[in-house]
Amino acid sequence: MSSLTAPLRRLIDLPGVKDLEFRAVMKREFAEPEARTEFPEIDACAHALFGLTNDDAERAVRPADWDNIELKTVAVQVAAFEDAGWDVTDDKRRPLRVFGHFNQPLWLAIRGVAGALPFQAERGEPEAWVSKLEAEAKRFRKR
């Protein structure tokens, strides 16, 4: 990644997603779309993150030029999410098992159709004064 591009935001790093992913690893049925009725914490997490449950996302009115990205294959969506600045894979670059529980609310939020993206503090290089202070401290220690 070049210094001109911002790092991708990772879905798994959002609050609650890693725990849900772990549960899906331990119990395959947890990743299935029907799991939302049995495990309300899935919709609770989506709502807390994006202001939408999956049911809300399915009912949301899409603009006329909507491309139905949420219905495309997982591989196509993973690439499209990366283009939009999001990483929806695990540490081994496999799509998250809980991907299907979050893709619709995330697409709607990214594109500004419904819901909202969770706040993320800016990351980046330390301000210039921090670097100068660190360099000064190193010089001082050498004396």
What does this structure look like?
The structure is a single chain. By secondary structure, this protein is mostly helical. The protein has one domain. The chain is built from seven helices and two strands. It has helices at residues 17-26, 35-38, 41-50, 54-59, 74-83, 99-110, 128-142; strands spanning 9-10, 86-87. Helix 3 runs parallel beside helix 6. The two termini are 38 Å apart. The mean pLDDT is 87.
Keywords:
143 residues, mainly alpha, 7 helices
Write the layout of secondary structure elements.
Layout: E1 9-10, H1 17-26, H2 35-38, H3 41-50, H4 54-59, H5 74-83, E2 86-87, H6 99-110, H7 128-142
Parallel strand pairs: 1-2
Helix pairs in contact: 3-6
The residue fraction in helices comes out at 40-55%
Radius of gyration in whole Å, from Cα?
A: 19 Å
Mean pLDDT: 87
Number of strands: 2
Structural class: mainly alpha
**Tally of helical segments:** 7
Total number of distinct structural domains: 1
Distance between the termini: 38 Å
Shape: elongated
| H/E element order | EHHHHHEHH
Stretches where pLDDT is under 50 for at least 5 consecutive residues are: none
The largest sheet has its strands arranged as 1-2
Strand content: under 5%
Instruction: Give the biggest beta sheet.
Output: 2 strands, parallel
Brief synopsis:
With 143 residues, this protein is mostly helical. 47% of the residues lie in helices and 3% in strands. It is built from seven helices and two strands.
